[in-house]
């Protein structure tokens, strides 16, 4: 899934890009829509985004790399696998 495909009906591709690059948490409505599109539990996504543990840090680094490579499906799989 590309950034453009992820963004359809939710936000702009540029917004997805900015979230990926800056690592900032988007508005809750946008976060909910993205989590829904990726079929990721919102609580788990928020937990992983806020935790600063070694394991979660490594997972989130990998997820960010995958997202920066437009590999959102694999990023979603990784997040689900670590729920």
Can you characterise this structure?
Helix content is 72%, strand content 0%. The chain is globular, with a radius of gyration of 12 Å. 16% of the residues are buried. The protein is an all-alpha fold. Helix 5 packs antiparallel against helix 6 (72-81). It is built from six helices and no strands. The mean pLDDT is 83.
Give a short synopsis of this structure:
By secondary structure, the chain is mostly helical.
Question: Largest sheet, if any?
Answer: none
**From N to C, what is the helix and strand string?**
HHHHHH
Radius of gyration, in Å, reads 12 Å
Oligomer: single chain
C-alpha geometry = globular
Any low-confidence stretches, pLDDT <50, length ≥5?
none
Number of helices: 6
Q: What percentage of residues falls in helices of 4 or more residues? A: over 70%
Span from first to last CA? 21 Å
The tally of strands reads: 0
Query: What is the arithmetic mean of pLDDT?
Result: 83
Beta fraction of the residues? under 5%
Structural classification: mainly alpha
List the helices and strands and how they pair.
Elements: H1 3-7, H2 13-22, H3 28-38, H4 42-50, H5 54-68, H6 72-81
List keywords for this structure.
Lambda_DNA-bd_dom_sf, 83 residues, Helix-turn-helix transcriptional regulator, mainly alpha, TPR-like_helical_dom_sf, Cro/C1-type_HTH
């Amino acid at each position: 899934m590309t950034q453009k495909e992820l963004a359809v009906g939710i936000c702009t591709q540029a917004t997805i890009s900015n979230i990926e690059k800056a690592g900032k948490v988007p508005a809750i409505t946008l976060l909910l829509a993205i989590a829904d599109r990726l079929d990721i539990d919102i609580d788990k996504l928020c937990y992983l985004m806020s935790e600063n543990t070694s394991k979660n840090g490594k997972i989130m680094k990998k997820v960010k790399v995958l997202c920066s490579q437009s590999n959102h499906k694999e990023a979603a799989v990784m997040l689900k696998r670590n729920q």
